[in-house]
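Dear colleagues,

For the upcoming journal club I promised to circulate an example of a predicted protein-ligand complex. I picked one with zinc ion because it came up in last month's discussion. The inputs are reproduced below in full, followed by the predicted structure.
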Amino acid sequence: MCPSSTDAAHGRFAEMVIPADSIPDTMPARDARMPVLIGTAPGEAAAAVRELVVAIFGLGAVGRAVAIALARMGVERLLLDDPSSYKPESLLTQPIAVDDVGEHKAASTARFCKQLSPGTRVFYRIGRLEDIDVAGFRGVGAMVLATDNLRAEVAAAQLAVDADVPLIHAAVHGETLTAQVRYFSNAGPDSPCGVCQYGPAEWELLNRETRFSCEAAADVRPAASTSSAPTSSFSALCGLAADLATMQVLRGALGLGAPVADTMLEYNGYTHRTVISPLVRDPDCPVEHVTWTRAAASAPLPSCTLAGLLLDAGFQSSPRSIFRVEHMQFVATAICGNGHSQPLYQFVPQAAPIGRCRSCKLELVAHPLHAHCRAPEEVLRPLLDRPLGHLCSETPRWVVVQQGERAALFSQD
Ligand SMILES: [Zn+2]
Ligand SMILES: [Zn+2]
């Protein structure tokens, strides 16, 4: 058991550590098989690869293969995230050994990557993508998405836009033998995101919470409100999608060949053809296409006031200002089951208990009309000069201050 595994199980990235004496003396030199790429000087590609920091979401047949390929190249850092475990059916399509069945995908993949490349710092997290902490994303150069869950896809699209990181989305369609890799550059407000590509079918599925899967039929949880069949696939098709995605990571990072920004690459096993098509921005996309620029706060976050953060962001006070504190919501008024309401004026985690009613001692919840995940300055005006530490029920690790198309991210790290 890794010493930091409790962190990983609580939704935070933990570093995978393996005992030094478990690393064999026979480990090869990292670059012993590194090619001298055409158009680059000897050592140039190796140096660029060694600076790569890649986050991978979903560690099944596709994501695990990407992680392993990047570890073999000896990248600088990997962040691996998946909430689930390998099941017996995972053996049918996923690059695991029999011993990996029952293990958390994130921990198992992180351990294997660390064994393959002890010089790579490997972090892992066992949690839902939707709850990820953007503050931990400093330095990430690319995100790979290989999940079977549409809600996670939406969260990844928003995270990649917010964090200003290219997102490479790899997927397969088993019935048509199609492997697909989409590269979203997130290079500005006019760049498309994953959700820009959604049509009515995706929205309907999203609303029904259907899960797509690269795993075998027996492995798939029943969908919440639909009985549509899961996607099945050959392991070779998943592996192909993984290898194409890894190549897109490399091509994007090293600037090799034709630009990959905002393109979709599809290979079809029936036609034996590869098609590249552009990805376009949907002006009505519900994902907010605003990049969070990192900004420096003039004091540790708990001591900062919202008025101070506005100044640190270079903004004037304005009714257009919106504040976000992590995944907390600002609750102006709490209410109990008997309808008693009382003022709260605090940022609190969305699922956490708020306290008890002063009158009847029943549990309080956020009043739905007086709670804001994106709290406007108008609502916070009487509290703008109060330190964040007093305004939040937990120590805040990151805050976003936004005005229109501009947003500043302050994080504690
Ligand atoms: Zn979009
Ligand atoms: Zn009450």
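Two points we might discuss: The mean pLDDT is 88. Residues 336, 338, 340, 357, 359-360, 362 surround zinc ion (ligand 2) (CB under 6 Å).

See you all on Thursday,
B. R.
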